[in-house]
Amino acid sequence: MHVPILKQGDYLIATIQSVLSDADLLQLRDDLADRVGQFRSRGVIIDVTVLDVIDSFATRTLRGVAHMLKLRGANTVIVGIQPDVAFAMVQLGLTLEGVGTALDLEEGLAFLNAKTKRAGGVVARTGGTAPSSLSKSPPDARTRRGNRPLQ
Amino acid sequence: MSTFNEEICVPIRSDADIVVARQKGRALAVQLGFSGSDPTVIAAAISEVARNIVNHAKQGEIVLTGVHESSRLGIQVVARDEGPGIANIEQAMQYGYSSGKGMGVGLPGAKWLMDDFDIKSQIGKGTRVTMQKWVR
């Protein structure tokens, strides 16, 4: 099952649509590594809400993706780990150490905004601001990193 | 201990079968009356033992059955293969020990997730993991 990757300003959002086989997870890793270069992304959100189980392989792969993307200059945040899934991970002794995690997409965007400290970036969730930051990307987001040929 | 439903047998030949095995395990767990995080915990344990088959034996099978013993009801998961077998089971059950490409979490992790866990292996003949979890 192919995971669609959406570009949202400086960020990429990969929302997993159904349970994934090992091969699908590895495909997602490779796709994200490509897109981060193609779109010069600063942050990546991986939404795992639909995953039924995050076992040792999935944990290792997600951690690998995050560390690999970090080396490509992008911060990764994993969002949507379900309570039961988290419980089973803890029992298995699995951690996502060194990888950003957040409750949901909205928190994930806030996490990346804080991490990447975008000049003029939208500060999400201050003083009850509506989560409209999804559609607002700063006008200078492209030009700031532009003027260089795409890979 | 007796079984009371038809055995559900899932052949494990590739990583995609791991997903099938754990989905069938979760469905059976729910059917047997497991609730809360238990179906997910059982699915995670199945995922680990099925992955063990793919990584070390290439192919094998996962057999899922409902079981009852005295007054309790549970699920039994058997993972069997005719792979190379495990030379040192004690070592294989050590958390963090891996003979291959894994994290060394699979077998000890599955043991933690389930209530009962038994592993038998013979070099050159294969490995059989039997585990149960009981409805609380």
Q: What would you say this structure looks like, in words?
A:
- The complex is a heterodimer of chains A (151) and B (136).
- Chain A is α/β, with parallel strands linked by helices.
- Helices cover 40% and strands 15% of the residues of chain A.
- Chain A has five helices and five strands, in the order E-E-H-E-H-E-H-E-H-H.
- Chain A has a five-stranded mixed beta sheet, sandwiched between helices.
- In chain A, helix 2 links the parallel strand 3 and strand 4.
- In chain A, 36% of the residues are buried.
- Chain B is 37% helix and 32% strand.
- Chain B has four helices and six strands.
- In chain B, strands 1, 2, 3, 4, 5 and 6 form a six-stranded antiparallel beta sheet that branches.
- In chain B, strand 3 and strand 4 form a beta hairpin.
- In chain B, helix 2 packs antiparallel against helix 4.
- At the A-B interface, helix 2 and helix 3 of A face helix 1, helix 2 and helix 4 of B.
Features:
heterodimer, A: 151 residues, alpha/beta, 5 strands, 40% helix, B: 136 residues, alpha+beta, 6-stranded antiparallel sheet, 37% helix, 32% strand, globular
Give a concise summary.
By secondary structure, chain A is α/β, with parallel strands linked by helices.
- Assembly type: heterodimer
User: What sequence of helices (H) and strands (E) makes up the elements of chain A?
Assistant: EEHEHEHEHH
Total number of beta strands of chain A: 5
Percentage of residues assigned to helices of chain A: 40-55%
In this structure, how is the largest beta sheet of chain B organized?
Answer: 6 strands, antiparallel
User: How many alpha or pi helices of chain A?
Assistant: 5
Shape of chain B: globular
* Overall mean confidence score, pLDDT of chain B: 91
Query: What is the rounded Rg of chain A?
Result: 15 Å
The neighbouring-strand order within the major sheet of chain A is 1-2-3-4-5
Major interchain interface with per-chain residue totals = A-B, 24 and 25 residues
Class by alpha and beta content of chain A: alpha/beta
Order of helices and strands of chain B: EEHHEEHHEE
**Helicity level of chain B:** 25-40%
Distance between the termini of chain A: 27 Å
Unreliable residue stretches of chain A: 123-151
Number of strands of chain B: 6
- SS-derived structural category of chain B: alpha+beta
Sheet of most strands of chain A: 5 strands, mixed
What does the overall shape of chain A look like? globular
